[in-house]
Each structure stands twice: as C-alpha cells, then as structure tokens.
Amino acid sequence: MQQVTENVNPKINKYEDKPLLQLINLKKHFDVTDGWFAKEKSYLKAVDGVSLDVYSGETLGVVGESGCGKSTLGNLIMRVLEPTEGKVTFEGADLNELNPKELRKMRSNFQMVFQDPFSSLNPRMRVFELVAEPLRTHSVVSGSELKKRVYELLKTVGLDKSHADRLPHEFSGGQRQRIGIARALALNPKLLVCDEAVSALDVSIQAQILNLLKKLQEQYQLTYIFIGHGLPAVQYISDRIAVMYLGKVVELCSAEELFERPLHPYTIGLMDSIPIPDPERREERRTGNMLEGDMPNPVNPPSGCAFHTRCPYATEKCVNETPIFEEKKTGHMAACHFPLL
Predict the structure, then answer these.
(1) pLDDT confidence band for 284 (50 / 70 / 90)
(2) Greatest CA separation for the chain
(3) Is residue 269 within 8 Å of 262, Cβ to Cβ?
(4) Which of 63, 194, 199, 222 is deepest in the core (most CB within 10 A)?
C-alpha cells in the first residue's frame, strides 16, 4: 500500500497557507465481481489513494492517459460519486460529513464544466432556462433580476442575449461550451472542475475557451482543477500539474518545472508522445522513452511500482517495492525509486 506523506503539495508562494480544497487518501473502488457465486470479490481501483491540496486562485492540472482515474477524481470532488475511503474537504469542511441540506448549500461553491458540451445540456431547454436553472434551484434571484443575471452571464462568456431563446443544437461546439461555462458561473462558485473541457473542440476553439477561462479566473478570482490528456492545453492554463497513472498521482510540481525537468519516466513518456511537426525539433527530443504497450488492468494492477511493466528503467526493486510519493527536489514530488534527476 502506498504511504501518504504529510506534505503532499509543495507550497507555491503566491497562494495562501490554508488550502481551499483537500483530498486526503482518496479512493474509489468499483465492485466488478463476475457473478453471484464468485469466490472472491474483484474491485476496479479507479482512484487509489490520492492526496492533493488545491490553493485559492490557482489552476491545478491533472493529466494522464485514458483510464488513469482523472475523471473519476473529478466526480469524487463534486460528490457525484461517493468515495470508498478517504475524504474531501472544502474550506475545512468534510463533505462526507455534511447532511443533504448542508451539502446542497455547499455545492454552490464548486461547479463542473463537462467534456461534451452537447450531452451536458438538455436539448429541450432553451439557453435562458439552462443558465437560469441553478439560480432558481438555489433561490438566488427571480423575476426581472433573474433575466438580468442570465444576460450578464451570457455576455461574460462572449455570447449575446439574443442567444437566450435558442436551443443547444443551434450552436457550435465552442458556443455550447460557453453556455456550459455560463451555467457553471451562475452561483458565483469559488472552484470550477473542468473535466476535459476543451478536448472535444477544434484546436482554434480550444485556444479561445482556454483564454476565456484564464480571463474569468482573473475576473472572478476562481480556482480551477483542469483535467485533461492534451499536455499543451494543460501546460498553458495550469500553475501546477499532477500526473496520474493507474489511480495514483506519480508526479506533482509547477507546470514550468514539469515541462523543463520531469522526473518520472511515465511523465517523460507522455511528453515524448506529443507529435512535433518540425523535423529539426523532433530530432532534439529524447529517444527511447516513447510509451509502449497498454495500461495494466486496474482490477489486477502490477506489484511494486505500477509503471514497471512499461518503464525502460525498471529494476527488481521496482517490481517488488511500491515507491513512496515524496519530494525529490524542492517543490517537486514523485513516486519513483529512480527519478531522472
């Protein structure tokens, strides 16, 4: 079992000492037992002991291959899923201990922007109703004030009030994501969980949405958890980045440090997998570190370091001993027996 260190997040000076959000040894195991009469239960370990601190005003990026558990992590933060073990605290309050009324009140402080901007919007509801729904649910405003607030939110995300009478199918993917962002902002949240918020969009539209998110963060003093698998987008928007592999965080540091000097072989493999169109720059890239093979089955993960089955530097120690997630350099944490210092 991976040990949890006390200081799981290197401090960044611009943030307050007290984190806005804390994930403490968070786990989510899904029962995938085959049949009623199976001798032993089987569990898919989607999130397996994640501890993170998120500070007010920062953007924490979460990256990894599909199936690494990053979206499940976002759903645990939002309390869409109940954790198997561990806890989530927001401004010091343990979300697991709140009753339904208290949780509903707390939910206005954290909202989600989803990956698919079409399926996340009710196709039968007009834009006005979509954006107004959270305001009505939480009894924030009504009447003329409601209409004014909806129009303000649409303007904030770059839409016109004339769009309020249209249905979601009448918009492009980028416009639908702007509607989703407007709805997420309706209750003046402190934290936005962006789950693959730009991965379904064209590259040019991705840049527009990323710039919008950065502008809104400054305007409303927002905190982001930006989940994605596109490293360039995550690098652009993030202050710190957590790299996940098979349900665990294997590396954590500032975005600048991660891209300049990654320590974990998995992180290096992810970066070396980014296509580079310039032949000269392609030659400068590290060789021999491209990720090969598939991620192991999370129902039956490998012993020791879970990445050892794909790691070019793995030794017998990696097979037998689970590395501790700890600080390897100042402000740079990794779970690796032989970090590439």
Answers:
(1) low
(2) 69
(3) no
(4) 194
Count CA atoms within 13 Å of residue 46 on its CB side: 20
**Contact in structure between 197 and 164 (CB atoms under 8 Å):** no
Per DSSP bridges, beta strands 332-334 and 326-329 are antiparallel
Q: Which of 85, 57, 88, 86 is nearest to 74 (CA)?
A: 88
The DSSP secondary-structure symbol of 285 reads: S
Are β-strands 240-245 and 21-31 bridged in parallel, bridged antiparallel, or unpaired? Answer: unpaired
**Which residue's entry shows tokens 């401090």?**
11
Helix (H) or strand (E) holding 268: helix 265-272
Q: What is the pTM of this model?
A: 0.90
* Cα 289 to Cα 219: distance, rounded to the nearest angstrom: 41
Helix, strand, coil content of the chain in percent (nearest 5): 35, 20, 45
How sure is the predictor about 41, in pLDDT bands with cuts at 50, 70 and 90?
confident
Distance (Å, whole) CA 100 – CA 102: 6
